[in-house]
C-alpha cells in the first residue's frame, strides 16, 4: 500500500525539497548511493571489482528542466569515463544512463538526449566498455528504444532495459532478443496506470519469467536485474535449459541490496554486476528504493525520530 504513495512523492518538488534538506536523511541515503563525487566512488569501484564483482555506474539525476543541466549530466559521465580509463577495467565497469537526465523531456528533447548520450557512448567504447539505457516511465520508452536503435548502428553493444510490469514488454523482448543485443530485464520501478502495466506483484513476477524465457532462448545477452531469490533460481534453470554457458548471461543487483548474494553468485562463477549510483541529485533514485521495500521507510522514519 505504501509503495504507490512513496512513488507519487518521488515526483513531488515539495517533498524533494523537504527530504533532500533533512540532515538525518544522509545516513539512510548512503546505503544506496555511496558517494557524491567521482573521487568518492572510485575506491568503491576498486573494492567491488577487487571482490570479483563487476559494476555499472549511474550518475544520479532525472527530470531536469534546462538544456544546461543536460550538458552538465553529459559532462559528469565524461568525467567518470576519464577516471575509468585509469582503472582499465574494460567491460567489468560499464555505465547506466537515464535519458531524462540528458534532456529527453525538454522541447526537442529526443534529439537533445541523443546528442548528449552519443559522446558518452563513444567515450565508453574508446575505453573498451559500454553503456546501458535505463528504462523510465512508460511515456519515455518509444523515444528510448529509438535512441537505442540509433546508437546500436555505430555501437552495437549499447544495452537497454525492459520492464516486466508493462504489457508491451513481451513484444519488445522478442524484437530485442537478437544476436549482439544486451538487454537488462527488471520488474519496473515507476508508478504506472492499469492501462499499461500489471498492478499485482504476482502478475509482474509471472511476466518476468515469460520474458526471461524469451531472452534466454533468443540470441542476445540477457542481464537479469533482480534481487528476487525465486527469480534468480528460475533464471539459472532457464539458462541451463537454453544451453547457455556462465558467460552468456549475467546477474545485476543494486548497490546496498542483498550484498551477500552479490558475492555468493560471483563465487559460484556467475557474472554479477552491481549497479552503483552516485551524485548529488539522489532524490528520485532514493525514493524508488524506499517504495520497493516499506521496511526501508520504517528504518528511515526511525532514524528521524531517534534524532
Ligand atoms: P522484489 O520482489 O521487489 O524484491 C525481492 C527482494 O529483494 C525483497 O524481498 C528484498 O529482500 C530485496 N529488495 C528489493 N528491493 C529492495 C530495496 N529497495 N531495499 C531493500 N531490499 C530490497 N527499474 C526500472 O524501472 N528501470 C530501470 O532501468 C531499472 N534498472 C535496474 C537495474 C538493476 C541492476 C536492478 C537490480 C534494478 C533496476 N530497476 C529498474 C529496479 C527494478 O525495476 C525493481 O524495482 C527492483 O529491482 C526491485 O525488484 P526485485 O526484482 O529486486 O524484486
TrEMBL record:
Pathway: Amino-acid degradation; L-proline degradation into L-glutamate; L-glutamate from L-proline: step 1/2
Superkingdom of origin organism: Bacteria
SUPFAM superfamilies reported in the protein's UniProt record: FAD-linked oxidoreductase
Keyword vocabulary terms for this entry: FAD, Flavoprotein, Nucleotide-binding, Oxidoreductase, Proline metabolism
GO biological process: L-proline catabolic process to L-glutamate
EC assignment: 1.5.5.2
Location of the Proline dehydrogenase domain: 45-299
Catalyzed chemical reaction(s): L-proline + a quinone = (S)-1-pyrroline-5-carboxylate + a quinol + H(+)
Residues the record lists as binding substrate: 98, 288-289
Class of enzymatic activity (EC top level): oxidoreductase
Name of the protein described by the UniProt record: proline dehydrogenase
Annotated source species: Streptomyces fructofermentans
Amino acid at each position: 500500500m505504501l509503495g504507490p504513495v512513496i512513488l507519487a512523492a518521488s515526483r513531488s518538488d515539495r517533498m524533494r525539497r523537504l527530504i533532500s534538506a533533512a540532515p538525518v536523511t544522509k545516513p539512510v541515503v548512503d546505503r544506496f548511493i555511496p558517494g557524491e563525487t567521482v573521487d568518492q566512488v572510485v575506491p568503491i569501484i576498486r573494492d567491488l571489482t577487487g571482490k570479483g564483482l563487476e559494476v555499472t555506474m549511474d550518475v544520479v539525476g532525472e527530470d531536469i528542466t534546462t538544456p544546461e543541466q543536460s550538458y552538465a549530466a553529459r559532462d559528469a559521465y565524461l568525467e567518470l569515463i576519464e577516471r575509468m580509463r585509469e582503472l582499465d577495467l574494460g567491460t567489468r565497469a560499464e555505465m547506466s544512463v537515464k535519458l531524462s537526465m540528458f534532456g529527453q523531456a525538454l522541447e526537442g528533447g529526443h534529439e537533445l538526449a541523443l546528442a548528449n548520450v552519443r559522446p558518452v557512448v563513444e567515450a565508453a567504447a574508446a575505453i573498451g566498455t559500454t553503456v546501458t539505457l535505463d528504462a523510465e516511465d512508460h511515456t519515455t520508452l518509444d523515444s528510448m528504444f529509438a535512441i537505442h536503435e540509433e546508437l546500436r548502428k555505430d555501437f552495437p553493444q549499447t544495452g537497454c532495459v525492459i520492464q516486466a510490469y508493462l504489457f508491451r514488454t513481451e513484444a519488445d523482448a522478442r524484437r530485442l532478443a537478437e544476436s549482439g543485443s544486451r538487454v537488462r530485464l527488471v520488474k519496473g520501478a515507476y508508478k504506472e496506470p492499469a492501462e499499461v502495466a500489471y498492478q499485482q506483484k504476482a502478475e509482474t513476477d509471472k511476466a518476468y519469467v515469460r520474458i526471461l524465457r524469451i531472452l534466454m532462448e533468443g540470441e542476445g545477452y540477457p542481464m537479469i536485474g533482480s534481487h528476487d531469490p525465486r527469480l534468480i533460481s528460475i533464471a539459472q534453470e532457464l539458462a541451463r535449459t537454453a544451453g547457455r554457458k556462465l558467460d552468456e548471461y549475467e546477474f545485476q543487483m543494486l548497490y546496498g541490496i542483498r550484498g551477500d548474494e552479490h558475492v555468493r553468485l560471483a563465487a559460484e562463477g556467475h557474472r554479477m554486476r552491481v549497479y552503483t549510483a552516485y551524485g548529488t541529485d539522489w532524490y528520485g533514485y532514493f525514493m524508488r528504493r524506499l517504495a520497493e521495500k516499506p521496511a526501508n521507510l520504517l528504518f528511515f522514519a526511525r532514524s528521524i525520530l531517534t534524532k
